[in-house]
Amino acid sequence: MTDLALSVKDLQTFFYTNNRCNKALNGVSFDIRKGKTLGIVGVSGCGKSVTASSIMQLLPRLSRIEQGSITYHSEAEGEIRIDQLERDGAEMRRLRGDDIAMIFQDPMTALNPVYTVGFQIAEALQYHTDLSPNARGEKVVDLLKDMGIPMPEKRAKEFPHNYSGGMRQRAMIAMAMSCAPKILIADEPTTALDVTIQAQIFRLMNQLKEEHGTAIMLITHDMGVIAELADDVAVMYMGNIVEAGTVDEVLRTPRHPYTRALLDSVPVLGRGKDQDIKSIRGATPDPYERPPGCQFEPRCDYATAACQQPQSEDYITNTHRVMCHRYKEIFGNV
Fold first, then answer.
1. What are the CA-CA distances from residue 23 to residues 28, 46, 49, 102, 171 (Å)?
2. In which domain, by residue range, is 216 found?
């Protein structure tokens, strides 16, 4: 039996606007293992949320998956090719929320303003479980209580506008966790939360992994969260995964200049205000006028003329891969 929950191979998702094509994802490949967390990191606009939307088949109308495969490894039904399902078909709707759930980045737009929060959470339970109405109501209250929301019985009857930003985020997390999904995609799940609630949410996510074998895809900018929670890491830039491996391989021995630059830009607790925090020079290229070779080449301190040619992936170990032909001479191979 495979330990894979989801496999993404050579995924290409393009956006079409004003007779122009934005290759938002241009050959993304990764695996998410059962009971493990894959952390996706990278600057805003690198394709993290588009990857999540592609998996959930929630892409905008003027976009489509041009190439590649998204395979869900279901214990009951075997391999299911998500990329071949209709976006709003019955099969895809059945998978969403039950087998694969997502915590959206912006709860204000993800929650419906004309329905109570309790109704919206119970709706997922009604569609995917056989619970009675009373049992669904009790489950909703328990979920809100687990999220640290005070007076959950009262709050379940309130509307999203009655919630603070952090509470709306917690309600979204409660909705995603309601059916104990096999795969949980968390897109910046704790952005609006204070550190104590963050720790509580991450503890619940770890509990899902341990008790139900849930595979988690965690999208975040916080390297501290990645170091604490992730088992594997994929670093994205301009629609490509430029480096991927276990959390120890990527964070302790980064082999791509972009990964190293990201880590150098993170302040370290305890070093005081005099520590040297480096920014990445330049700006992200226009997605409609991309560099011909390595997408990081215009901003890379180690770039040569050869970097203007298409780059291929190189496996350093069985699990550690990098998309940079100069990594050995820059950082070594150990």
1. 11, 11, 14, 23, 33
2. 1-99+182-334
143 and 79 inside one domain: no
Judge if 171 and 231 occupy the same domain.
no
Each residue of 151-202: pLDDT tens digit?
999 999 999 999 988 888 889 888 988 888 999 999 988 776 788 878 888 8
Cβ distance 320 to 255 under 8 Å?
yes
Q: Number of folded domains in the chain?
A: 2
pLDDT value at residue 203: 85
- Report CA-CA distances (Å) from 154 to 93, 116, 117, 122, 159: 30, 11, 11, 15, 11
Asked whether residue 331 is domain-assigned, the answer is yes
Interval 100-142: pLDDT, tens: 999 888 777 889 999 999 999 999 899 899 999 999 999 999 9
Residue 236 lies in a domain: yes
Helices (H), 86-222: 90-95, 107-110, 117-128, 133-146, 152-155, 165-177, 195-212
What mean pLDDT is predicted for residues 18-43? 94
Q: Look at residues 141, 147, 145 and name the one whose alpha carbon lies nearest to residue 125.
A: 141
Q: Are 11 and 28 in contact (CB under 8 A)?
A: yes
Q: Model pTM?
A: 0.91
Instruction: Please name the residue ranges forming H helices in 223-280.
Output: 223-229, 247-252, 257-264
pLDDT at 144 (0 to 100):
93
- Going by pLDDT thresholds of 50, 70 and 90, the confidence category of residue 333 is low
CA 3-322-255 angle, 5° bins? 115
Nearest to 97 by CA among 128, 68, 73: 128
The one-character DSSP state at 159 is -
